[in-house]
Amino acid sequence: MEILDLPITWNLEQILDDLAQHGFSVIDNAYPTTFAHEVLNECMDNLQKFRNAGIQNGVQSHIRSDHILWIDTQLEIAQQHIHTLKILSDALNRAFFLGINDVEAHFACYHTGEFYALHRDNPHGKNGRVISTVYYLHETWEEDWGGQLHFKDKNDVWHTLIPKPNRIALFQSDLLHEVQLAQQQRLSITAWLRNDQTIW
Ligand code: OGA
Ligand code: MN
């Protein structure tokens, strides 16, 4: 089934306003519970394929210890989330002329004790990432389980966001942020709305 609209829980005006004013927005109860469970199941069914995100070209980085799986067309439920993000991208392009033309995404799993230290997803505009999005998949999250998304908004105000299930955090990819040490298994889909330049 082709979904042509954003889910009803997504208040587009609010999202646009939050992004314009603060550089971030939060969507709670993002999807119907049945869908949220399907994505969680797809994530869990594929956990054995996740790879250490800190290792690139055989070199281990110490700023992150999570495990990821890039989302391809085989991951059909996660693709529906990407599809929704493409509809959102069209709206963002109309409002802010961002030129977003691609969405890249991976599942992420933080085991107990894992974290992602302070970073920017698009430092100095070195890649095409415009907006970062994180959709939290685990079934429950308690206040004292750590794993918060801690970030500085566009007005230099710091925020701490609990990775509540079925919540989506959206923020400008140039903002400084970190994932604090998780004390339980923390599952998510990170997706970036990109404006890659086409070279003719
Ligand atoms: C990332 C990231 C934040 C989160 O994957 O780059 O910063 O809350 N994730 O998982
Ligand atoms: Mn990040």
From TrEMBL:
The keyword Aminoacyl-tRNA synthetase does not apply. It comes from the Bacteria. Keywords: Dioxygenase, Iron, Metal-binding, Oxidoreductase, Vitamin C. Its cofactor is L-ascorbate. Residues 99-195 form the Fe2OG dioxygenase domain. PROSITE patterns: FE2OG_OXY (PS51471). Pfam families: 2OG-FeII_Oxy_3. This is 2OG-Fe(II) oxygenase. It comes from Vitreoscilla stercoraria.
